[in-house]
Amino acid sequence: MASHIVGYPRMGPKRELKFALESFWDGKSSAEELQKVSADLRSSIWKQMADAGIKYIPSNTFSYYDQVLDTTAMLGAVPARYNWNGGEIGFDTYFSMARGNASVPAMEMTKWFDTNYHFIVPELGPDVKFSYASHKAVSEYKEAKSLGIDTVPVLVGPVTYLLLSKPAKGVEKTFPLLSLLDKILPIYKEVIAELKAAGASWIQFDESTLVMDLESHQLEAFTKAYAELESSLSGLNVLVETYFADVPAAAFKTLTTLKGVTAFGFDLVRGTKTLDLIKGGLPSGKYLFAGVVDGRNIWANDLDASLITLHSLEGIVGKDKLVVSTSCSLLHTAVDLVNEPKLDTEIKSWLAFAAQKVVEVNALAKALAGQKDEAFFSANAAAQASRKNSPRVNNEAVQKAAAALKGSDHRRATNVSARLDAQQKKLNLPILPTTTIGSFPQTIELRRVRREYKAKKISEEEYVKAIKEEISKVVKLQEELDIDVLVHGEPERNDMVEYFGEQLSGFAFTANGWVQSYGSRCVKPPIIYGDVSRPNPMTVFWSTAAQSMTKRPMKGMLTGPVTILNWSFVRNDQPRFETCYQIALAIKDEVEDLEKAGINVIQIDEAALREGLPLRKAEHAFYLDWAVHSFRITNVGVQDTTQIHTHMCYSNFNDIIHSIIDMDADVITIENSRSDEKLLSVFREGVKYGAGIGPGVYDIHSPRIPSTEEIADRINKMLAVLETNILWVNPDCGLKTRKYTEVKPALQNMVAAAKLLRTELASAK
What we know:
By secondary structure, this protein is α/β, with parallel strands linked by helices. It has an 8-stranded parallel sheet with strand order 1-12-11-10-9-8-6-2.
């Protein structure tokens, strides 16, 4: 019985790639040094899977930024602004597309389906001259082969690539991206030919858009693409992999009749309904790659339950055609539990990170082949029972409080227009008020202080003194820049979710449970293992200390319940909405304590609300109902004069704008600049928005510093569709990933642009 891994984490167990990338970007190391770190990581990953007994080991899942950008490089689809002159795409062009450079901005970045991973959105049009410009897929296959490991090269499928793209600037928004299929397939054929010549016997196409709601012409594009590739694929075993949701019946029919395809991969964790389609009939003689081990969460697999599922599938496709697999790439989970010596022993027994999931996949494959490891299965069953019955998981008081939420929609009593009037009387802000999103640069010294405090190398008194000094610097800088509503810069927080999770019950934390978000950016999601409550205030001390340093309004900074949920590894033993309501009640307690302490502006970030939207439209309404409700629960009890902000970033919000309005926040700040001001189009189309709104005026994920004129131009575009009295001026997102040498001039230009337009608006009256 064979085993397969869809993909594997790239950063390394100690984030080796992150540090190598940042060293290269800072000019402290060479391209050769970055390539050496990367090659060592790939070698280690391939050998680990081979040693674990995995038969189908993926290659070309490693990336310096993301796999979609890698495909853009492979196809030579470089936007003209990067001045690429052909040939093999090098680091300069590649990273300029990802991060921008001194003269041009980066390409748009958005969420990968409903995960916290991001990808760079291809910009395409009728005039793009495609060419085979990155041989990475072939070179990595050869690299693994030189180590004695035969791999399955993985490519983003041609149709999925086009469906994830957008029309380039200047191209009609209605341009049919699928019309480019005939232009990109010749390059796919070249790649396939080179892989065959190098000795590949399998190839994997990730066609993950097949789980989406697709129209008939989109499904026909899959049929057309693989019919065109059929002769090129002759002699290869071809796996088309899907993940993250059920495959709809029409897509299942299209997929299972594709020409030249010998194997189908399904997510049977998030796509349990696909089981019924498989049982209804899979073409005979085809391989089924059964994704029964969860690639998106960190809970140990219920091996006995998975084995039952696999036995039922074995009866449909036959023993020799069933392959045990992960539900999706393990990119979305942490790397290895071995790196967690301090994690609570009982909780640790309930978990499986990527390295452990590889072992689970192989154990299931061996069990199907009649070589069941009884001791391994017995230990797994004991851990499942321990988790189910642990008193640490269940808190009756929390469950009762959450159950009592039913029957109310938790709306503030006064409408937003009246609240904004009351808040303006108290805050006395100018038109086009300026603010930032929360965090300021996390310096090496600041990280050292937090690290030493955590390691008990400095006292609590020394830590508090150092953090207060940092807050004071951030407050003074904002006052010097003449920003209207201040933030304390979050120097006490390494991560916006981890910080809160550490102070809530029902959460566990790792030392090295890092997961890639984009590029070199890694996050360390908390683990929600039990019922959630707030034992003590979490931010009141720091917020009141910051407010005491200035007469200007100081925002209290919180992470919202939906974002905490979506950016955590969430318990899978109860519905997600129940856990979210519990978190909402905990945040509600904190909001009310901040208000009592004299904080008049409170920001409750919901950066990940859109990210959690199910992939299928039929499931949208239910999710949005409980997600928006959870946000309203957090601030239903505050006075009209307390201004509630929220923040959202790096997703397409246009399709949920009415739900955003339904959140009933007083002010929303939202990513806008990197996505070609796509957000503004909903207001041009007539959506009325009466609350305060701050579409981002510059992209903080690029080191580029925008000019005053550029920012003023962006604000003017906003003023064309939004009322002057509701518009705020702010960056796209928090500033923690930037340097002060970038932040100061950018904010200076932002404030100057706001003042310039205030003057123009005043003189126009």
